[in-house]
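[job 0412] stage=complex_fold ligand=zinc ion status=START
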Amino acid sequence: MSDRDFLFKPFPEMTDADYEEVGFRSGLEIHQQLLTEKKLFCRCPAGRYSETYDAEILRHMRPTLSELGEYDGTALMEFKTKKEIIYRINRNTVCTYEMDDTPPFMIDEPALDISLGIAMLYNLNLVDELHIARKQYLDGSIPTGFQRTTIVGVNGWIPYKDRRIRIVQLGLEEDACREVSDVGHRRTYLTDRLGMPLIETVTAPDMRTPQEVADVAQICRRLVRSTDRVRTGIGAAREDVNVSVRGGTRVEIKGVPRIPRIPLLTYSEAMRQWNLLRLRDELHRRGITAETFRSDFEDVTKSLQRTSYRPVRDALETGFVANGVVLRGFRGLLNWQTQTNTYFSREISDRVRVVACLTTLPNIVHSDSASETLASAEWEAVRRALKATRDDTLVIVWGSKEDAKTGAQEIAIRAKEATVGIPSETRQALHDGTNGFERILPGPDRMYPDTDLPPKKVTEERLERIRKSLPVPIWTRESFYHELHIPEDVVRPLAVSRLSGLFETLVKDWKVGPTFASVALIQFPKRLRKRGLDPGRVTEAIFKDIFKLYKDGKISRDGVYLAMSEVAANSGLDATDPPTVPSSADIEALVRRAADRLACLEIHNPPKREHILTGLVMNEVRGLVEGSAVTAQVREFLKERP
Ligand SMILES: [Zn+2]
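[job 0412] stage=complex_fold status=DONE, emitting structure tokens
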């Protein structure tokens, strides 16, 4: 017991020493879409998303018992859920390959090049020969029931703090369908994303605090982005985070959409595991083990026929049944805290939701609950029906006869697992930073060789060509920038910017000051955008032209900014007529000219006159002079000529 005296503190109060105390370990599986025109094993377009569809296909994902293999928890779970799957198909984005009617085409060569390049950046040992494998997927997210995948490299590393984070492997694989909805026994998918090339990078569980996990995720994100060959935007990069604590189990949190959410999510999972281990200690103290665990269930519909508790009453009125489950010796334990504001009862409710498909919440009530549910006479009736004592906990679950039975069985299964420890499962990231059960973790035997495609040699020439086109690793770039003492907030954006190569040319070959160059390339475009201009017009080629003028002494530093402003405001750059800063006298002349044009109009409201004059002048000098400078000159002018 003394081994787990530690109690989790609120998230902001946890220290690195606290995480060491509980033996926090975490690793990442990063899924990143590659920027290709086509899908990985067919010639459909990649990255063309649409909610519209031409057809729907219905499939029953019901693995036969022979497919279940030896105790594969996922397969067994999908077998129990009896889902029907709907695929929505848009003929512009899917062909017969994705729907398993035609064999695969050869692998998409650009996707292979990009993945090999990224594998090099991760310092991985590349394979000489690609072997395509099938990875079993039984949740319906891939119509064929398997994903084609191939390992590109193994055993790499990236630098982090004073150590290395090990990269276990990098795989090139097909993306799965996009889920539209999952209600009751029906799950619906869009198929446009299916088959798009994706890399999966797996790190070793080398991160020791939640913050380290987020840091490493950021490094990996910037590393792949520095190639400029990956997709960005919603859903283009998705993190799975696995977490364990000392004595715990590796649990995967799936589909974390944003890196800043990782610290709280991993904290919550570590806390959950720690508290489940403490719950096991308590159960053992009460003499409850997997061997002595006892539970029964009975149909208690009759006893609850007249209940005033709405969720049960409404269900029974529609013809559903209610089952009562007794967990012997569990008194009070459904209120055992697992995560922040989350208790063991949620573990049970989640299982019932996912496995019995009872998705309307609440889907259980229990006798440990402090809130008003069933009347005490009703609890007594259930207690008598199940021959329960005061030391036991009662749980009620309701639904169709079949679902209520699956639910009752699942309640007992999950409670019994608590006597053993932490089940291997994948969990969903929730908005409040906690997580919920998603599915049982697949067994290790879900890979098998694909006989449709022959092995493919990775030639030395190919690797040499890719190596030449690779960007300098971001950590090398960043330490170079630090040596140059460029502003701290420019270092990271510049390292992944497509202008980083130009920056090196400017600094090394053209002897432009590093701070000036970095500010002009990274910070000034942001200012232009704030002023409503389009910095995208300042392309790399135009940047070069502008800096050429600067290098040749034709324009000053201000002239560089002015030229950028002009291009951002009006597009083209006329290198034969470099921009010059309008002097104070130039602006004054412009103000006079504008005033003359206004003279024929009667304007009685002085502030309005100032506004109109400023507007007229700005039309001519936008991007060259700040608005505030023009306003000041207009005011001076109006003082003289009110
Ligand atoms: Zn296709």
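The two ends are 87 Å apart (CA to CA).
[job 0412] exit 0
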